[in-house]
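Key result, reporting period 2: structure in, sequence out.
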């Protein structure tokens, strides 16, 4: 009897201990014939406008892949299922969401946030759990400077992108602007956008008369009023779309009419034009992708126009580079999976091999080339795309420079509010 009790006790103890342990061997034995893809992005809160664009881009990739039967690995196709985690526009929530996807959902890889702050919070989590992660949107150079092994990005850093409009205004219009004021938001992305404006202005001989970094989500009236007093030719806004819309509305209320408004990032988001209506006219911005480019893609969407037509049919709007960059993030994972011939679910060894494949990736897509840097200040960023200056003209975005990238002529100076 005593022996039976002892044996029963050991069995009971083993059952209890096993219930708290999730060894790698058990995880690897999970059976499914589809790739489970985590998505961490801003679906609510201050950054929901931009977050919705990443979601559209990721959904475009997944829907197209599944429409074609899935990702083909050695003759068999595997569909993809996206599992979302809402960051609620806060870094802490992004980290919590990423941990849930890694530990509870056991996703094969992660498509990352819209914003840089939430991406910087997620990256240490994907590093901890060794989950490959590509952001289709975040642009802060801080991400690449920290050299995360498991994090990649399809969009070049803002320090490369944001300068295009200032270069165009400094080189391609007459009379050339003489002065610029810069208002930037105090976050991981926007401060660098503001600094890129300042750097570009100095490079083309435009005097920086004011450089102001302010908290996002506050009343911008005082900053705009102080800027108006200096009467700069250009007002450049390093911010997401919501803050820029507020600054332009305040400028109109104060009858402040700079000769050019320049914004990065958000003016190419359709919600920017919807929110400002006719007051979005003449605003300058920057992109690394438009439907008018001539890239010839290798997979899924063959050209920018084909992608834009499919996107417009699905969402009723013209895609911008965040939509396209997010779809391209899915393409990068898809091609890297093919390179290593990995079937779902991925083991840890396969996830590590996936990181190695991404580092070797060099493909042409509808979005342009995807080739991640493996050293230097752009580590794991797809930094090779060419920035394009845009301007709203007649309610449409027109490529206005710099130099040979110009399709239309930049309209400068902007008429005053009274004369529009």
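The corresponding designed sequence is given below.
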């Amino acid at each position: 009897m005593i022996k039976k009790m002892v044996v029963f006790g050991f069995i009971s103890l083993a059952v209890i201990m096993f219930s708290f342990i999730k060894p790698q061997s058990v995880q690897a034995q999970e059976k499914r014939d589809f790739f489970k893809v985590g998505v961490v992005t801003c679906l609510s809160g201050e950054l929901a406008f931009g977050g919705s664009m990443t979601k559209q881009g990721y959904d475009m990739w997944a829907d197209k892949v599944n429409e074609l039967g899935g990702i083909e690995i050695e003759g068999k196709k595997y569909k993809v299922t996206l599992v979302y985690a809402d960051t609620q526009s806060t870094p802490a929530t992004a980290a919590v969401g990423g941990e849930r996807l890694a530990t509870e959902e056991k996703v094969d890889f992660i498509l990352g946030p819209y914003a840089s702050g939430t991406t910087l919070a997620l990256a240490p989590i994907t590093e901890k759990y060794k989950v490959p992660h590509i952001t289709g949107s975040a642009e802060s150079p801080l991400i690449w400077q920290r050299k995360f092994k498991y994090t990649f990005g399809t969009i070049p850093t803002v320090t490369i992108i944001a300068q295009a409009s200032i270069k165009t205004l400094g080189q391609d219009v007459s009379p050339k602007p003489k002065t610029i004021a810069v208002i930037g938001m105090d976050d991981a992305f926007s401060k660098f956008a503001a600094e890129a404006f300042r750097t570009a202005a100095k490079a083309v001989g435009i005097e920086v008369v004011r450089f102001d970094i302010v908290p996002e989500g506050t009343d911008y009236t005082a900053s705009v009023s102080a800027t108006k007093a200096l009467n700069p030719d250009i007002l450049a806004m390093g911010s997401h779309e919501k803050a820029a819309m507020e600054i332009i509305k305040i400028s109109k209320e104060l009858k402040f009419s700079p000769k050019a408004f320049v914004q990065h990032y958000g003016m190419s988001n359709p919600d920017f034009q919807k929110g400002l209506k006719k007051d979005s006219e003449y605003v300058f911005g920057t992109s690394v992708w438009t439907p008018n480019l001539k890239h010839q893609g290798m997979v899924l969407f063959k050209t920018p126009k084909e992608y834009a037509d499919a996107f417009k049919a699905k969402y009723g709007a013209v895609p911008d580079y965040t939509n396209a960059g997010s779809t391209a993030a899915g393409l990068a994972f898809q091609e890297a999976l093919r390179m290593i011939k990995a079937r779902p679910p991925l083991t840890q060894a396969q996830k590590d091999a996936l990181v190695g494949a991404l580092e070797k990736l060099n493909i042409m897509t509808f979005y342009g080339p995807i080739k991640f840097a493996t050293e230097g200040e752009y580590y794991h960023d797809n930094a090779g795309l060419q920035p394009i200056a845009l301007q709203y003209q007649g309610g449409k975005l027109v490529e206005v420079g710099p130099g040979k990238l110009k399709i239309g002529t930049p309209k400068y100076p902007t008429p005053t509010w009274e004369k529009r």
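Residues 160-287+387-419 form a domain with the Rossmann fold fold (CATH 3.40.50.2300). The radius of gyration is 24 Å. This case is discussed further under Risks and Mitigation.
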